[in-house]
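Re: [ENG-882] Designed sequences occasionally contain unexpected residues at chain ends

Forwarding the minimal case from QA. Structure tokens:
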């Protein structure tokens, strides 16, 4: 696959979880803190991604995700950035969960897929680093 721009991806420290709470729930205090955090609310749910270590056991969540930060900045109208990263993973049957913020993107993939994903990203022309 040819990419027009090489993307640097920083593998963040820690293990993450994707949590689902009811749409009427208040944002819990455990949600905010160190590491990447994203909180989204829809009419159907309150969704929280954060470090797994601070999530109470009783919370419904999908555990054991790695988080990779797209090192930008990228312009809002710049196209193909996310596609260039997820395409080689998708073609190798690795599922991803992408979250966009104002300044960039974060991609979560299962910890068990990380060792397979990193060489695929490198082969596609991207650069991966580990957060210290």
């Amino acid at each position: 696959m040819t990419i027009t721009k090489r993307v640097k991806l920083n593998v963040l420290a820690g293990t993450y979880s994707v949590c689902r709470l009811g749409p009427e729930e208040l944002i819990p205090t455990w949600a905010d803190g160190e590491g990447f955090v994203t909180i989204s609310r829809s009419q159907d749910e309150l969704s929280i991604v954060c470090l797994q270590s601070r999530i109470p056991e009783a919370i419904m969540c999908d555990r054991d995700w790695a988080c990779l930060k797209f090192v930008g900045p990228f312009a809002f109208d710049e196209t193909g950035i996310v596609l260039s990263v997820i395409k080689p993973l998708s073609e190798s049957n690795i599922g991803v969960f992408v979250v966009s913020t104002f300044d960039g993107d974060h991609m979560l993939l299962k910890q068990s897929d990380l060792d397979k994903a990193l060489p695929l990203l490198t082969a596609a022309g991207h650069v991966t680093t580990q957060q210290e």
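QA comment: On inspection the terminal residues look reasonable. The mean pLDDT is 92. Proposing we downgrade this to a documentation issue.
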